From TrEMBL:
Lineage: Bacteria, Pseudomonadati, Pseudomonadota, Alphaproteobacteria, Acetobacterales
Gene3D superfamilies: NAD(P)-binding Rossmann-like Domain
Domain of life of the source: Bacteria
UniProt name for this protein: SDR family oxidoreductase
Pfam families: adh_short
Similarity field: Belongs to the short-chain dehydrogenases/reductases (SDR) family.
InterPro entries: NAD(P)-bd_dom_sf, SDR_fam
Organism, as annotated: Gluconobacter vitians
Record keywords, A-Z: Oxidoreductase
Length: 251
């Protein structure tokens, strides 16, 4: 059992990858974890393994989210659900933009809006936003809309600390680099190929690494707020400059 004052947690995108790992880790700490995702079958398996309470609801289902929160006292909200796409802005469809904004940013805003009043009333709570290094750095090959939504999550995390100043409500942003999850398989339509292309020859993070990072922040003493955590593989760096050769004399 944990000494944390938190009793309940809600984890989105909980059926696999980082979300499922967070559910396992927080359940081990003695917190009652509510696991939210679309895949009911995977949630049932996770529930039998961890004792979590499954909720087969899409983060895009506003009515479903409101119904869930109305009957639930959330001490810890883990905004983890996310989607990505390949290609830059010139290869992005209107449907891609809507899906990424809806899941990566709109759902985070809506869930936060729904749970914060209860946290304020109890003067107890913790919001953890899983963002990405894509929200802080520009790099060739990244999806423009994905980068923009994750930058929005970063800005939300910063502003929330101002909104909640003077209360015992913490806000943490965890910003991972490459993590070995099914997301890469969905991006290219073949998990075996994704494993070969992105992971076999590289040292990447595992979902458990991010779950342990989240647990460190959530289980830290109440006097301490881990406001921002950037988590990278040891063998990866971010940043750098690119220069294109001249193609003609400047006008």
């Amino acid at each position: 059992m944990s000494n944390t004052p938190y009793r309940t947690a809600l984890v989105t995108g909980a059926s696999s990858g980082i979300g499922a790992a967070i559910v396992r880790r927080l359940s081990e700490s003695g917190i009652e974890v509510h696991a939210l995702a679309r895949d009911a079958k995977r949630l049932e398996t996770l529930a039998s393994e961890t004792g979590c309470i499954p909720h087969a609801v899409s983060v895009s289902d506003q009515a479903g989210l409101e119904a869930l929160i109305a009957g639930l006292e959330v001490d810890v909200l883990i905004n983890n659900a996310g989607q990505s796409r390949t290609g830059n802005i010139t290869k992005t469809t209107p449907e891609d933009i809507d899906a990424l904004v809806d899941v990566n940013l709109r759902a985070v805003l809506q869930l936060t809006r729904l749970v914060v009043p209860g946290m304020i009333e109890r003067d107890r709570g913790h919001i953890v936003n899983i963002s990405s290094i894509a929200g802080h750095y520009a790099f060739t090959g990244g999806n423009t809309v994905y980068h923009a939504t994750k930058a929005g999550v970063h800005s939300l995390s910063q502003q929330l600390r101002c909104d909640l100043f003077g209360r015992h409500i913490r806000v943490t942003e965890v910003s991972p680099a490459r993590v070995e999850t099914e997301v890469f398989g969905r991006l290219i339509g073949d998990m075996a190929e994704a494993k070969k292309r992105f992971f076999d020859e590289y040292e990447s993070l595992l979902p458990e690494d991010i779950a342990n990072s989240v647990a460190f922040a959530v289980l830290a003493p109440q006097r301490m707020n881990v406001s921002f955590m950037e988590v990278l593989p040891t063998m990866q760096v971010v940043g750098g400059l690119n220069f294109a050769k001249k193609t003609s004399d400047p006008a």
